Inverse folding.
């Protein structure tokens, strides 16, 4: 069965942001070793006790409680996984649907209640529909709570016919849990939604190896559930670091096409692309001639101001070159790929101004089919106080020089100076995507985004 463990490959100290080797007071024997994570929230890491105490006193003692609550669904999923693995060789066939409710589960005894909810939903009586959906799911919620204290149900005990029925019933329930989680997240019922996502995932994992499993449908729903659980963490600043744990578990179940917990875009290209978070300057080749566009990033801004002026792409201020004639002409001549991607809806070219005292919190871009280039225009004098982290490495801008990186990796920006930072930001096609397949790849990303939105509006039958 899949390895269910939390993310532990921390590279930077949660207190000071430095790797272990950069701590002057750390013994040589302790340098370049693995950071130790907080035993309570599992989501902060330190090279030594001094950093841990400093972080605790500077606010982690309050933040830790929020993180402990956010990580609960993952710990419950791990507890289910551990309970299933106790002395079992075929643990993927073990369910938290208890023995005393398996009969009702197989015949979907309360299906009329769910169907009435669907009818209410179709009649735009959403509040009434949600009440019925939640009532239908209540027995399963109780089963999830009591599962650790009860004898697990072994699916292999069923006849072949009932195994097929179990597979159908588990998939049906997983889809209903997922839909209810969508609605609860939209209604700010975060804790309940996350728990339903964990329940949905456990059912999908249980049946994915059964002979009767419709593997493509199960894979699609598993991707959706992991993605939604990840987004539920990323949308709340205090919980955002938990997304690394979710992504690691998703990777271990071969979901979302992710390969690195720090690279978790909404859409991963179907063609294999090298996973390079930051591209050194000697590898820049821009002038070849051959969720959206990033504006949602404003939700992760803390501080004074982050403003953009769009030259090409959604929200462009002018279709002509009158607003920035020299810049636009140079981009047309030397970086036409940036314009083509912007016009196809996959990116933008913008002037990006970040005021002093502003922090853009860690987040991931929507897709890995593009790279992002920053051309430094106005750069504060202190490179240590104005910089960008991509994956686990910090970088600084230089006026007139490019920074090139894959923004599908986790990244954040800090400007702790009193000066503004201005860059020309360009989205570029990933160089490994052939020009003949670009339209197909981008349409696949946009189609997947549209499908993910539509699923939130139509309850499963």
């Amino acid at each position: 069965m899949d390895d269910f463990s939390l993310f532990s490959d921390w590279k930077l100290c949660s207190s000071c942001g430095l790797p272990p080797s950069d701590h002057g007071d750390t013994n040589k024997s302790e340098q370049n070793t693995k950071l130790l994570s907080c035993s309570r929230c599992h989501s902060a890491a330190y090279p030594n006790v001094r950093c841990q105490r400093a972080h605790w006193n500077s606010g982690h003692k309050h933040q830790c409680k929020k993180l402990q609550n956010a990580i609960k669904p993952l710990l419950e999923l791990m507890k289910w996984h551990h309970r299933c693995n106790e002395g079992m060789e075929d643990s993927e066939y073990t369910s938290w649907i208890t023995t005393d409710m398996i009969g009702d589960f197989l015949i979907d005894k309360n299906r009329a209640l769910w169907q009435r909810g669907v009818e209410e939903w179709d009649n735009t009586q959403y509040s009434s529909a949600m009440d019925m959906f939640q009532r239908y799911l209540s027995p399963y919620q109780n089963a999830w709570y009591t599962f650790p204290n009860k004898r697990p149900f072994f699916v292999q005990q069923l006849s072949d016919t009932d195994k097929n029925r179990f597979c159908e019933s588990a998939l049906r329930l997983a889809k209903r849990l997922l839909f209810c989680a969508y609605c609860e997240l939209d209604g700010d019922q975060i804790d309940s939604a996350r728990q339903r996502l964990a329940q949905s995932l456990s059912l999908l994992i249980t049946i994915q190896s059964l002979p009767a499993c419709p593997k493509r449908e199960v894979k699609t729903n598993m991707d959706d559930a992991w993605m939604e659980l990840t987004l539920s963490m990323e949308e709340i600043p205090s919980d955002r670091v938990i997304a690394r744990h979710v992504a690691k578990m998703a990777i271990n179940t071969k979901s979302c096409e992710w390969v690195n917990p720090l690279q978790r875009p909404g859409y991963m290209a179907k063609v294999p692309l090298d996973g390079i978070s930051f591209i050194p300057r000697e590898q820049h080749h821009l002038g070849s001639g051959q969720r959206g566009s990033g504006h949602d990033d404003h939700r992760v801004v803390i501080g004074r101001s982050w403003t953009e002026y769009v030259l090409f792409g959604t929200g462009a201020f002018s279709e002509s070159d009158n607003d920035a004639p020299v810049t636009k002409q140079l981009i047309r001549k030397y970086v036409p790929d940036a314009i083509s991607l912007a016009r196809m809806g996959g990116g933008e070219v913008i002037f990006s101004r970040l005021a002093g005292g502003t922090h853009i919190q860690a987040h991931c871009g929507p897709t890995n089919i593009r790279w992002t280039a920053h051309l430094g225009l106005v750069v504060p004098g202190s490179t240590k106080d104005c910089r960008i982290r991509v994956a686990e490495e910090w970088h600084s801008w230089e006026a007139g020089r490019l920074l090139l990186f894959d923004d599908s990796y986790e990244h954040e920006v800090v400007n702790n100076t009193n000066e503004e930072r201005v860059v020309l930001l360009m989205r570029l096609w990933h160089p490994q995507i052939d020009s003949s397949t670009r339209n197909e790849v981008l349409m696949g990303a946009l189609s997947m985004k549209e499908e993910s939105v539509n699923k939130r509006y139509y309850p499963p039958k």
Residues 1-70 form one domain. DSSP finds twelve helices and 15 strands in the chain. The first helix runs from residue 49 to 70. The longest strand covers residues 370-378.
